[in-house]
Amino acid sequence: MEVTQESQATESGEFRALKPCLLRRNHSREQHGVAASCLEELRSKACDILAIDQSLAPITLVLAEDGTIVADDDYFWCLPSNTKFVALSANEKWVYSNSDGGTAWISQESFDVDETDSGAGLKWKNVAKQLKEDLSSIILLSEEDLQVLIDVPCSELALELSQSCAAVQRLQNTVQQVLDHREEARQSKQLLELYLQALEKEGSILSKQEESKAGFVEDMDAVDTGSSRETVSRTALTSQVLTALKEKPAPELSLSSQDLELVTQEDPKALAVTLNWDIKKTETVQQACEQELNLRLQQIQSLHSLRRVTARKTPPPEQLLSPKRAKQDPT
């Protein structure tokens, strides 16, 4: 819904400019188009149109995009026409919501952070929401998402998670430990690969590798150029995932669990053509992705099991307040 700019006549006969705006309440997708000459008029119209009780005044107007409080008429007029505002009643806090009908990050099938700068700026809030719903989902995040949480100022992340700065600092330290653990695993895998390469030079693995390459060449000879292009077009992986597979050492440690699952579901031959790899290397990487995915899921299940056990062992509040007395021995 858009509102065109107008002017209206005052009692003295003068005309004053009106700025078209879009209004909605917090946690609502329903938007209302209004035109106002100043912030005070926009607040007044917000109370009427959005049916905000006068007892909830004062009304605060914030930008729907990032929650910036608009408290100055000069800044109000610097904003473009049809700017989206959220009207907050007293003691109400702004919460990010995709008012265009999108869903939360946890239910999205994909999220391309390269589309717009504003999308990249809000990514850490989407990741924070996922952690707020289930802290154990930290295990499922990609290294990029983990780094985003570390780079966010502690005060902003604390506000988003409704936690103290001390608790958020501990969370960021935990995130850093997860990143460090993955880096240690990557370095260990690289050392192992160097050791295997040394064995290949001695001839212990060279013959098997040559046989695998010969078999792959025969398969490629049976496929013409046109069918190769068709195979590449069937690859459902994003460019971001393909880049990680090509350039990252131990790429399974860099990807999110959702991306790991997509890699394991790819046809090995199609993925090999896309990455310009031999089939043996492709299958090895897919197996590593599958193992990493299973490990993360097992960790999630273990955490949930511990939570259930802890919940069963914790006595109800009434038992803590009124403990039963032990029965006396009648003798």
CATH class of the largest domain: Mainly Alpha
Could you describe the largest sheet, including whether it forms a barrel?
A: 5 strands, mixed
The dominant shape is: elongated
Order of helices and strands: EEEHEHEHHHHHHHHHHH
Helix percentage: 40-55%
Mind telling me which CATH architecture of the largest domain this is? Orthogonal Bundle
Strand content: 5-15%
Topology overview:
Elements: E1 6-9, E2 15-25, E3 32-36, H1 39-49, E4 60-63, H2 73-78, E5 83-88, H3 117-133, H4 143-151, H5 154-161, H6 165-201, H7 206-221, H8 225-233, H9 239-247, H10 257-265, H11 268-275, H12 279-313, H13 317-321
Parallel strand pairs: 2-5
Antiparallel strand pairs: 1-2, 2-3, 4-5
Helix pairs in contact: 4-6, 5-6, 10-12, 11-12
Walk me through the structure.
One of its GO terms (molecular function) is deoxyribonuclease inhibitor activity. Residues 306-331 are annotated as: Disordered. InterPro entries: CIDE-N_dom, DFF-C, DFF45, DNA_fragmentation_mid_dom. Heterodimer of DFFA and DFFB. Residues 168-202 form a coiled coil. Helices cover 54% and strands 9% of the residues. It is an alpha+beta fold and 331 residues long. The chain has 3 domains: 6-88, Ubiquitin-like (UB roll) (Roll), CATH 3.10.20; 114-204, no CATH class; 215-313, C-terminal domain of DFF45/ICAD (DFF-C domain) (Dna Fragmentation Factor Alpha Subunit, Chain: A), CATH 1.10.1490. Strands 1, 2, 3, 4 and 5 form a 5-stranded mixed β-sheet that branches. α4 (143-151) runs antiparallel to α6 (165-201). The N and C termini lie far apart (84 Å). Mean pLDDT is 75; it is low at 99-120 and 225-233.
